[in-house]
Each structure stands twice: as structure tokens, then as C-alpha cells.
Design brief:
The chain is 54% helix and 16% strand. By secondary structure, it is an alpha+beta fold. Strands 1, 2, 3, 4, 5 and 6 form a six-stranded antiparallel sheet that branches. Strand 2 and strand 3 (16-23) form a beta hairpin.
Length: 250
């Protein structure tokens, strides 16, 4: 369900319109400004937690020489403001996503190198699914890596892992590697290789063949040698001996 508030005109000679709107219980701020006679542009922006998620412009050069220019400009701005709100809410209603859809979007963006856009998508996902451990874990990792804020990223990843442990059900151990992978990568961004290795190794306890975890350890030079060195690591003998060693060490 989407809703919108009444438009509030900010007291700057009608040079700015401002509204708070809601879409799926998430609050967005909409602001429309006159960019001045130098550009003759009006711009409307929709913000989510201070970040622009939509921006629209229109030109008003054709109004400058008309009588009652100020009134006409104010009317154009108000209409542009309302139109921006309507378009945004319609698009939100059309594009309402599930968690898997958000994850797929994030993966596609990361493959293309769009880490900051992926981070923006995760913020939107968390606004729709607040406190979700999976979303929070990926978000924390990207806060560390893409925003270069490793301290906060590590904290978010740890919070996500703790939240997942509290809410886990039968069979949920299958998902642990993802949480430890994200946590380990956040630690690496913080130059904390010791805790990163611990996180990756903890993840491998739940999935000994996880390629992402093994790759991170290989890059760090921390991957253990196979039990029988002259055989391939994937050889069934090495796998079987490795399983036996793992059981004994637990």
C-alpha cells in the first residue's frame, strides 16, 4: 500500500517544495527546488535516508519573460513536485520486490562492478525487510568494502550473524558460510587478517567445499595442505581423510 502526505511549501518565497511520503511503510522525502535563472531549471529529488533514489528536471526558460512570472514558476514547481510524487509511488507499487529479487539485483550489480549501486539497493531492501539477517550481512560487507567503512561494516556483519543464530531453525546451518564469508571480507578491509582467517575457517566447518571461502584462504596463504599431498585435493581419498580428521578434531 502506498500513501502520500500533503505538500508543504517551505518558506523561501516558494523556491522550494518539500514533502514526506510513504511507500510500503518506508518514509521518503521529496524536495523540489528552483535552480535559478542561470539554468532555468526546476529539479525534484526523492531521498531515502539522505540518499537520492530519483531525480527529475524540467526547464522553465519559456516562462521568464511572461507576466506574473513568479506565480507561474510557483505553479510549475508545485505541479512538478506532485507529478514526481505520483510517478515515484506508481513505480514503487509496480516494482515491489521480494527478498530473492533484491538479492538477484545485488548480484547482477556486483558482477558489473556497481558496488555503490548494490549498496543502495540493499538499503532499499532493508527498508522493506528491516532486520533481515541475510540482507544485513551483505549490507555490512558492502559498507566495509564499497563505502570504505570497515569498522561499521564488521559491526553490522556481526550483528547479522548474531541475529541469524537467534532465529535459526533446523537445517539453517547450511547458510552459515555466507555470514562468515561476509564477516571475513569485512575484517580483511579492516586489515584484520587474523579474525578474517578465523571467520573463513569457521564457515568451512559448515561447508568444507565452499569455493568462496577456500578462495579467500588461498589468497591469504592459509589453506591447509591436503592430507595426501601427492594426490589432487578433490581426490576422494583426500576428501574422505579430511572428513575423518574434521570429525576427530570436533
Amino acid at each position: 500500500m502506498v500513501s502520500k502526505s500533503k505538500i508543504n511549501i517551505v518558506s523561501r518565497l516558494s523556491s522550494e517544495f518539500s514533502s514526506d511520503i510513504k511507500a510500503d511503510n518506508v518514509t521518503y522525502h521529496v524536495q523540489t527546488e528552483d535552480m535559478g535563472l542561470k539554468t532555468c531549471k526546476v529539479i525534484s529529488k526523492v531521498f531515502l535516508k539522505g540518499e537520492v533514489v530519483l531525480s527529475r528536471k524540467t526547464d522553465y526558460a519559456h516562462l521568464v519573460k511572461l507576466e506574473k512570472f513568479g506565480q507561474k514558476l510557483a505553479s510549475l514547481m508545485e505541479n512538478h513536485h506532485k507529478t514526481t510524487i505520483d510517478l515515484f509511488l506508481k513505480e514503487k507499487a509496480r516494482q515491489k520486490k521480494s527478498k530473492p529479487e533484491y538479492f538477484e539485483d545485488v548480484k547482477q550489480l556486483l558482477r558489473k562492478g556497481g558496488a555503490k549501486e548494490a549498496l543502495r539497493t540493499l538499503r532499499e531492501a532493508l527498508a522493506n525487510f528491516p532486520g533481515d539477517p541475510f540482507l544485513l550481512s551483505y549490507y555490512g560487507c558492502l559498507v566495509a568494502v564499497a563505502e570504505n567503512n570497515p569498522k561499521e561494516g564488521v559491526g553490522i556483519c556481526r550483528e547479522a550473524l548474531a541475529g541469524f543464530k537467534e532465529s535459526q531453525s533446523f537445517g539453517s546451518e547450511f547458510f552459515y558460510p555466507v555470514f562468515y564469508l561476509n564477516l571475513g571480507r569485512a575484517y580483511l578491509k579492516d586489515n584484520n587478517k587474523t579474525d578474517a582467517v578465523k571467520a573463513f575457517q569457521e564457515g568451512l566447518k559448515h561447508d568444507r567445499e565452499n569455493h568462496d571461502l577456500l578462495w579467500e584462504l588461498t589468497k591469504l596463504g592459509k589453506r591447509k595442505r591436503p592430507p595426501v599431498p601427492f594426490l589432487e585435493r578433490c581426490n576422494p581419498i583426500n576428501k574422505y581423510i579430511g572428513m575423518l580428521i574434521s570429525k576427530v578434531s570436533k
